[in-house]
Amino acid sequence: MTTEPMQAPLESQPHDETALVNVRDLKKHFPILGGFFRRQVGAVRAVDGVTFDIRRGETLGLVGESGSGKTTIGRVMLQLDDATAGAVTFDDIELTATKGEKLRKVRPRMQMVFQDPHASLNPRMTVASIIGEPIKEHRAAKGPARKQRIEELLELVGLDPSHANRYPHEFSGGQRQRIGIARAIALNPEFIICDEPIAALDVSIQSQIVNLLLSLQSQLGLTYLFISHDLSMVRHIADRVAVLYLGKIMELANASDLYTDPKHPYTQALLSAVPVPDPKLEAERERVILEGDIPSPAHPPPGCPFNTRCPIAQERCVTEVPEWRELADDHWAACHFAE
């Protein structure tokens, strides 16, 4: 018989007073409809009880395989999708309980940079219109002041202000992502969710966008949630890293600790797959090969969600949900055998 929940109870992870964002036992289940009357016959547990904080001025990396629930967490945090359960608190404002005009007033303080800059920019709008849209919508500036602000934003992200009247298709992928970033910072937000912002870009451009994000964070005092499946890039940008699997967080630690001493078998497997630039070390290091595919979030396995692929799984892992516990200073993991 399994026990609930996997993530830490609220009392074991107290509210972090230095945090800008607090997420507590967040869940997002999508209904599965079936039968003639289209009644709910099940649910896809895209996010199944995650708890974490994001401190002011830091970058929290959120990593995991495709389908693990990374993007869904970001969308629910910004209330682009409603939560099934749990709470998201932004600067003492509980977003999951905030609706209508009150939520609209908070939105300028929270923004998102999307994965595909081609799909996220309206091809029928000029760059000036795209960047100026949030400024116009929230009445932050008018006329010449808005035009000046758009030019400032283009300069800030490394684009020529004289190109403001061009259309997205006239720019490269990296330049389009810079336009998306300019739009995201147009209203001087405090918190930005970067949803795989470099995944659709050439490798040669990825580091430029990451360096731009780091520069903007330093200049504007931004706080990031950086969602990615690229662990090597997350190591470069993140202060702390959370590892997600099947809608649950497996491990959370400072980036340096997680990369040098991963505690959870899933984290160890992910890191073993990251290429090492030294050919000798690459040839000698031991790889952890995971068998099988990630289970369906509609039918997660009992006990530890990773037990079907874990190389050290035992009978206890199938019957008992592991406790979310602190193994070292600010280093958390959900594994019966992690030390």
DSSP E strands, number = 12
Strand order of the largest sheet: 6-7-8-3-9-10-12-11
Classification by helices and strands: alpha/beta
Taking the sheet with the most strands, its summary is: 8 strands, mixed
Low-confidence stretches: 1-12
Helix content: 25-40%
Q: Mean of the pLDDT scores?
A: 90
Sketch the topology as an H/E string, one letter per element.
Answer: EEEHEEHEHHHHEHEHEEHHHHEE
Strand content is 15-25%
> Which of globular, elongated, flat, extended, rod-shaped describes the shape?
globular
* Rg measurement, Å: 21 Å
Q: Distance N terminus to C terminus?
A: 25 Å
- Count of DSSP-assigned helices: 12
What does this structure look like?
The protein is built from twelve helices and twelve strands. The strands form two sheets. The chain has an eight-stranded mixed β-sheet with strand order 6-7-8-3-9-10-12-11, with helices on both faces. It has a four-stranded antiparallel β-sheet with strand order 2-1-4-5. A hairpin with a 2-residue loop joins strand 4 and strand 5. It starts with 18 loop residues before the first strand and ends in a 5-residue tail after the last strand. The N terminus is likely disordered.
Summary tags:
globular, disordered N terminus, 24% strand, alpha/beta, 12 strands, 339 residues, four-stranded antiparallel β-sheet
